[in-house]
Amino acid sequence: MSCELGEDPNHPSCPRDESQCVTKGNPLHWASPCLTYSVQVDGSPRSKLDADEVQAFVEQAFNAWKAARCPGGGSPRFEVQFQSYVSCDRREAVCDDLSKDANVVMFHDNNWRDGTGHIGVTTPTGGKESGLVIDADIEINSQDFSFANDPTGMMSTSLQYVLTHEIGHFLGLAHSQVIGSVMRPTNYQSLPYSPNPISADDVAAICAAYPPGPKLSCDPPRPSTYDKCAIPLGEDPPCKLSSLTHDAGGCSCRLGPYPARPPLPALATLGLLMAALATRRRRPVPG
Questions:
Q1: Most buried residue among 17, 148, 161, 278 by CB atoms closer than 10 A?
Q2: Domain 2-243: which topology?
């Protein structure tokens, strides 16, 4: 909620409910449920994954969420399309021209900066006043975790589960405390194998965030001129934006796709994605 923008994380002042969700302000939202993503072109040499293989895993993870069967019938109403491979290997948001921006999934085989215990980080960026989310980047820690197949063909860490978890954050879901949920903050990557790892709790969350409705007709991804990093390392984007990763607390609020914004459900898996520009925070998603 917009009240949280500018709030000192060490001295929170916005009203909160029993789940520690901010209850004052305007909702945060994507401009459309027609979404796109890109993949960093290097893949993960350490895990022996090229960019095409990464893209296939990402598509599989998005499809897991799209395949949810909502309690009242139908499936979550969003579409996602692969846009391009890009060279930039760090998170950034180019806000002055969205044709020069991309939502990038990337691996870090070295120089991981978000804590050795964190498998992945999802960082959405949006307008401080409008609450409009314009960018979300997903980073995977392939420095401290291996996603390479062992001699039996199994991964020591399940990339399918890790990407499904991080894409849950990309779609607006925060952490769940429900055992068996792929959105649990820890140990979700060790759940028993399933072709579709999302649980009933995950289904309830994604269906609340993207209620079923008429079939979407999404235009093909626009041509992107984004490839190399556009913002010098250490600089903020030259516009009013806020960026952070999820709080590990996992409250019951949610990111809502525009224009549908149903009442906020009491689900631990639905979460806010933004915080203040003035107190720019990057709180990594554990596990």
A1: 161
A2: Collagenase (Catalytic Domain) (3.40.390)
